[in-house]
């Protein structure tokens, strides 16, 4: 018998248990073990019914995606599913934790399904650029109806046990896993219930067969945010086959769709992103076995936009927060905004009706920094100037308890300088949350020169605990994301001064897949913020300054790079802006030229990639995939393009280096010259994917992905 799958007999019920930690993935060895045990249980005359379950913290949480793109290993998934589905003895799937992807497809071929109340069931393959390839798109609509099936398959979102019971996906919610599964199997045998094969039951798709708009309306609702992505539309087509075709034909078409997607560039990029996120959890230079410090309460200094959003993130995860302001009025305003945000989410059905009150109860709003004494983690989210940050950190020594982690939410300032304001620099690091902090998933964790390993591990651990993605970065101006973004921003004004228009540049960037163009984004943020900052630094930006001098501050004034009709956030091209740009060109003695979309894309993206190469050389990021994770989760880089460094490899580093040399000469900008690492990799025909640092020495290997 298999080492990872066991068969035991409890009276007349055979219990098949998968034990392949950590997630019981449906690998070749697990498939083989299940097949062997199911066959043995069917052949044993003493066994009348079978329960399929898993040890550890979860049911089968998906396929083994490391097998994708490699020669198939027997037994094939379809052979395992066929053995279960065609079993003459009742097979019950007893589910706990997560039954996802191939795990749920396995459960769908069982004749009955039961689950513990905490279970999650879903088909999230679309998030890897795939569709379920083992009958999920054909069986799930027959189990729950096409509308919920579309939500789960095209949207990729799992459902809980209560909804699964209501929809018919499971037959019962059980208290104890193995005992509950066994009791249900005994009941099935006692009642002589007929075996239900979903492939033979069209009752739940009959209405959609008669009126296909039931299906098409559900698809339209789920795909409206899927611009540029292939998998959601292919997944919708596959669910459609369940309605339009006989089961076996639908199964064949589903498989064709899966094989096409698994070989696609988009799915390869999305699978890369999946592994890149997990790779980011590995922290270089931290002794093995370093444990995080306990964090039971967090204190946040500042109840403004960032501080409030960070407080919400912790309360969402059930972690108590002390939210501190300098005055009652600011505190009241901050608490009110949080309450309003949660109530709006509850009104939309995003959280339960009682959640706003429960979450607000976790936040203790107080005035005065002296209230941080019981916090294990203190996050400063005050005004973004070094003087203010240092003043705050200077006071933390007096009030923060010994061993508390002290974090700054700065987006660009030097953490080493901030740490010098305290007598405990070993406890200081950066935690750069992205706005809106209660929504955005990324947190850049900035390791300062003297940050203790356990303080760093604590920050990574707590960020994961609040369901965000941590990426450890080094100290430099702007860290990873904003430092690269600054290179793109420098090209924006230059392109305007050469003849491009805001709407052309934004169209190129959104066509590439970014959620918003840079000029529409500036209008949303408010042009006056950067204008005041430039004035402080004595820096000019000819066109942006001229817009601000004309009172065009963006959406808040109804005019910026675009105009906005009353009550609308939709940017409309404005002839006045074109006129202002022409007048600026005339005043500066510049000639207008036609700028191609291709040039705009190259000048937006290639300088950022060049800066990414410098970031790697300097050790600010540990690996190219960390840079990609920052851009995927902090800046809306399209996941189907994998991230800037991954995308650069697909374009070709030699081409990028050559174009940078060209633009450096054409625009008389030496900052565009290729970085030494980019130049070296390009000359050797290598990629970022294979680059890494070992013991301070740059190495190149085949990709870890």
Short descriptors:
single chain, 705 residues, alpha/beta, eight-stranded mixed β-sheet, six-stranded mixed β-sheet, 12% strand, disordered C terminus
Can you offer a commentary on this structure?
- The structure is a single chain.
- With 705 residues, the chain is α/β, with parallel strands linked by helices.
- Helix content is 48%, strand content 12%.
- The protein is built from 29 helices and 19 strands.
- The strands form four sheets. It has an eight-stranded mixed beta sheet with strand order 12-11-10-13-14-15-16-17, sandwiched between helices. A six-stranded mixed beta sheet has the order 1-2-3-4-6-9, sandwiched between helices.
- It is globular.
- Residues 693-705 have low confidence and may be disordered.
Calculate the mean pLDDT score and round it.
93
CA-based shape: globular
Report strand order across the widest sheet: 12-11-10-13-14-15-16-17
Structural class: alpha/beta
């Amino acid at each position: 018998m298999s080492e990872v799958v066991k068969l035991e007999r409890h009276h007349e019920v055979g219990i098949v248990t998968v034990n392949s930690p950590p997630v019981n993935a449906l690998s070749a060895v697990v498939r083989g073990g299940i097949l062997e045990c199911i066959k043995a249980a069917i052949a044993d005359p003493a066994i009348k019914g079978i329960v399929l379950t898993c040890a550890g913290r979860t049911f089968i949480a998906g396929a083994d995606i490391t097998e994708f793109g490699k020669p198939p290993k027997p037994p094939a998934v379809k052979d395992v599913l066929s053995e279960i589905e065609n079993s003459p003895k009742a097979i019950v799937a007893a589910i706990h934790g997560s039954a996802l992807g191939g795990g749920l497809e396995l459960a769908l071929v069982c004749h009955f399904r039961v689950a513990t109340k905490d279970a999650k069931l879903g088909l999230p393959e679309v998030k890897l650029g795939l569709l379920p390839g083992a009958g999920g798109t054909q069986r799930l609509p027959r189990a729950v109806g096409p509308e919920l099936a579309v939500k789960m398959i095209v949207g990729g979102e799992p459902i809980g046990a209560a909804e699964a019971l209501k929809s018919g996906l499971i037959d019962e919610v059980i208290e104890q896993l193995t005992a509950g599964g066994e009791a249900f199997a005994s009941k099935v045998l006692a009642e002589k219930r007929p075996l239900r094969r979903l492939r033979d039951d069209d009752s739940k798709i009959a209405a959609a067969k008669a009126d296909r708009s039931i299906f098409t309306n559900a698809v339209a609702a789920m795909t409206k945010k899927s611009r540029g992505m292939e998998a959601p539309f292919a997944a919708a087509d596959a669910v459609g086959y369940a309605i339009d075709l006989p089961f076996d034909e639908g199964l064949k078409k589903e498989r064709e769709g899966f094989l096409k997607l698994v070989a696609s560039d988009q799915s390869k990029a999305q699978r890369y992103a999946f592994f890149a996120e997990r790779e980011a959890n590995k922290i270089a230079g931290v002794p093995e076995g370093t444990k995080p410090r306990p964090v039971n309460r967090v204190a946040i200094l500042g109840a403004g936009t960032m501080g409030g959003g960070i407080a919400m993130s912790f309360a969402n995860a059930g972690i108590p927060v002390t939210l501190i302001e300098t005055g009652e009025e600011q505190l009241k305003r901050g608490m009110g905004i949080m309450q309003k945000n949660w109530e709006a989410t509850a009104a939309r059905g995003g959280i339960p009706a009682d959640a706003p009150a429960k979450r607000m109860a976790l936040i203790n709003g107080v005035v005065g920094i002296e209230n941080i004494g019981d916090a294990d983690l203190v996050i400063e989210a005050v005004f973004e100037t070094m003087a203010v940050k240092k003043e705050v950190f200077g006071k933390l020594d007096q009030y923060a308890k010994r061993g508390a982690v002290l974090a700054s939410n700065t987006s660009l300032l030097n953490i080493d300088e901030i740490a010098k304001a305290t007598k405990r620099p070993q406890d200081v690091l950066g935690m750069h949350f992205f706005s809106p902090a209660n929504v955005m998933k990324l947190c850049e964790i900035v390791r300062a020169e003297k940050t203790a390993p356990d303080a760093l591990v604590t920050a990574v651990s707590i960020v994961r605990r609040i369901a965000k993605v941590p990426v450890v970065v080094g100290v430099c101006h702007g860290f990873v994301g904003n430092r690269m973004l600054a290179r793109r921003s420098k090209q924006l004004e230059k392109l305007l001064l050469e003849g491009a228009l805001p709407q052309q540049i934004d169209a190129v960037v959104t066509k590439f897949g970014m959620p918003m163009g840079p000029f529409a984004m500036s209008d949303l943020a408010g042009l006056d913020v950067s204008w005041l900052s430039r004035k402080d630094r004595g820096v000019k930006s000819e066109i942006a300054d001229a817009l601000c001098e004309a009172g065009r501050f963006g959406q808040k004034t109804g005019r910026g790079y675009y105009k906005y009709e009353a009550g609308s956030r939709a940017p409309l091209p404005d002839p006045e802006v074109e006129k202002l740009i022409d007048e600026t060109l005339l005043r500066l003695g510049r000639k207008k030229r036609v700028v191609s979309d291709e040039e705009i894309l190259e000048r937006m993206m290639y300088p950022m990639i060049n800066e990414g190469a410098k970031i790697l050389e300097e050790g600010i990021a540990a690996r190219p995939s960390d840079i990609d994770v920052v851009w995927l989760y902090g800046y809306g880089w399209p996941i189907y393009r994998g991230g800037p460094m991954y995308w650069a490899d697909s374009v070709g580093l030699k081409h990028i280096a050559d174009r940078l040399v060209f633009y450096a000469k054409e625009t008389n900008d030496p900052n565009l010259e290729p970085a030494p690492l980019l130049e070296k990799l390009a000359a050797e025909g290598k990629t970022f994917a294979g680059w890494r640092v070992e013991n301070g020495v740059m190495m190149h290997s085949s990709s870890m992905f």
